[in-house]
Amino acid sequence: MSDRTPDAPTLSRDRGVTVFTLFTTTGTLLCCALPIVFVSLGLGATVVAITSTFPFLVTLTHYKIWVFAFSGLMLVVSGWLMFRSGRHCPTDAALGAACGKADRWNRRIYWTSVTIWSVGFFAAYVALPLRIWLGI
């Protein structure tokens, strides 16, 4: 077993992937979950105002399968980078504390991304079939 500590570029890459994952999963929430929630709450005019202000949301909605697939892939890659074996913080006290703090923030961002992706997936693919099945 090696006592290899991650170097700065590796930690920076892991953090960059985690932040990019948060960005992509937020895209799933914006394109698919929020419009459905707004319409369900009777705020259809809000959806019209948002899509007329940000027309790229309509394009994201047309390609939602690809948006969800790409962001799901990013979640898998980010999770693998974060939870793979062999990752250790440096033994130096200051560097170890900074590494531990960065790792805690990366995990928070990752689980926030997983939650956002799950909410978006539920709203885009599960909510309507469930509603039809329940007859609501």
Describe this structure in words.
The protein is an all-alpha fold. The chain has one domain (8-134). It has 5 helices and no strands. It has helices at 8-40, 44-53, 56-62, 64-83, 93-134. Helix 1 packs across helix 3 (56-62). The longest helix has 42 residues, at 93-134. It starts with 7 loop residues before the first helix and ends with a helix.
Write the layout of secondary structure elements.
Elements: H1 8-40, H2 44-53, H3 56-62, H4 64-83, H5 93-134
What structural keywords apply?
136 residues; 5 helices; mainly alpha
Radius of gyration: 19 Å
Poorly predicted runs: none
The termini sit apart by 57 Å
Number of strands: 0
Structure in a nutshell:
The protein has helices at 8-40, 44-53, 56-62, 64-83, 93-134.
